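--- STAGE predict ---
source: upstream dedup step, 1 unique chain passed
mode: sequence only
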Amino acid sequence: MSNQAKRAQANHPILDLLADRWSPYAFDPQTVEEEKLLSCLEAARWAASSYNEQPWSFVVAKREDETEFPRLLDCLLEANQAWAKNAGVLMITVTSKQFSRDGKPNLMAEHDIGLAIGNLTAQATSFGLFVHQMAGINRSKARQTYNIPESHEPLTAIGLGYAANAQRDQAPRSRRPLSEFVFKGAWGTSR
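--- STAGE serialize ---
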């Protein structure tokens, strides 16, 4: 399925890269080129973060790795395993719970990893790759499987790869209008 078929119908001008981004449930079981994967991770590396803490980590498994890919896939909830098994790359995102500079809780860590994933997603889209983020992971299994320390929190999973044409992905994209979440003067008052 092409980006054009799922292109966002924005009410105001946005970058083509953002209009073309969408999250497929159907991946073509094709290898993601190492250079493209590394560029996506490099884009994540350069995301903004509170105090430049960069509290994100990624556990990565490429489809062609016959040991690691099924191991990571097994950390996803069953419903996600059914479609994510065809992604070219699977990742688990992990955040640090504390600032390394003073050990205090980092309340911005989830925000910051979201920015990193946003960068990764934009870079992937520029290559014709697609990203599907998943909340449906078994966090305790991920922690145990990858020896993630208690100072860090497994958060989400990501499927990265080339989209396949599937019925489930045919529905048009939609978003709430700005008036529902952009306020002026008081909560709930549209600008």
